[in-house]
Amino acid sequence: MDDLYREALRVLEIEASWIREAGALASGSFAGAVSILAETRGKIVICGMGKSGHVGRKIAATMTSTGSPAYFLHPSEGIHGDLGLLQKGDAALVLSKSGETEEIALLLPCFERLGIPVVAITGSGDSLLSRAADVVLPLPDMKEACPHDLAPTASTTAMMALGDALAMALLNMRNFSPEDFAQFHPGGMLGRKLLTRVSDLMDPGPLPVMEESAPLSEAIAAMTAHRGVCFATDAAGRLSGIFVYGDLGRLMKSRTNVLDLKLGDVLIRDPITCTSAELASVATARMEERGITSLVVTDHDRLPVGILYLHDCLQAGVK
């Protein structure tokens, strides 16, 4: 085995063991930590110095994007003026492996003065931070992945994993849905997938609707003008069947002359449809699953209101 890859496996195994042990250690205090963060009337203030600070920024971003408003307060900036960001009703999540970081120590009385409860992620059960915290999520007493046991590596990985665990527990408590998530990510692929409705992408017409008595030659002309699809409705205007290029190809393999047929002779009855209110991603998946390239969009009375084309969905980035 390559020496470099062997080193990679060593690091990954150490970090995985830290996460497993951190999970076991959190069994007695995790619910209390979630309760404090969930009950806050303000925001979740996350603090950490050095590498813990970088982890704290990521946790704050994850919480905010999943329905738990949070922000990162740099401890040294906090004690030099940024404490004005704190408000009564906030809750604090403080990250420090040693629990004795000077800047953190200076912040703790400020939290106490404002009545801000503190959840700590720390590796020292007898540290200043542990004694000041309302709830402690302890880190394992294990060696870092750094071969000199100096650079924060596995400890910060465990902090991040605990932060993710807190964020996901809060998400579940708040019944935060994929649609809620998309509201915070409207510009990306997820936003397109979860916010785009069929009504946003469908062609509203004029629609290629024809009488069932129409000659097949006219139906073919209509299909050509409407990207390979036409359909018929009954006397009440409800969708009665659909005809597409694929059906024409199969029909021509089995008949010498198809032009003597009427549209009603070749319609696919009870075709797959969608509604305008559906997520376009769901309708796209339906088309891909069935190997079709368009869906007639109907209302609750099965009246056609548009056509959704697979190409338009894919071009819009919805999949």
Plain-language structure description:
The chain is an alpha/beta fold and 319 residues long. It has two domains: 3-176, Rossmann fold; 198-315, CBS-domain (Roll), CATH 3.10.580. It contains 15 helices and eleven strands. The strands form three sheets. The protein has a five-stranded parallel β-sheet. A three-stranded mixed β-sheet has the order 6-7-8. A three-stranded mixed β-sheet has the order 9-10-11. Helix 11 (216-225) links the parallel strand 6 and strand 7 (229-233). The mean pLDDT is 88.
How do you describe this structure in short?
With 319 residues, the chain is α/β, with parallel strands linked by helices. It has 15 helices and eleven strands. It has two domains: 3-176, Rossmann fold; 198-315, CBS-domain (Roll), CATH 3.10.580.
Contiguous low-pLDDT stretches (5 residues minimum) are none
Strand elements, count: 11
Largest sheet: 5 strands, parallel
What CATH architecture of the largest domain do you see?
3-Layer(aba) Sandwich
Shape: elongated
Q: Would you list the SSEs in sequence order as H and E?
A: HHEHEHEHEHEHHHHEHEEHHEHEEH
Using the coordinates shown, work out and report the CATH topology of the largest domain. Rossmann fold
Rg, please? 30 Å
CATH homologous superfamily descriptor of the largest domain: Glucose-6-phosphate isomerase like protein, domain 1
Beta-strand proportion: 15-25%
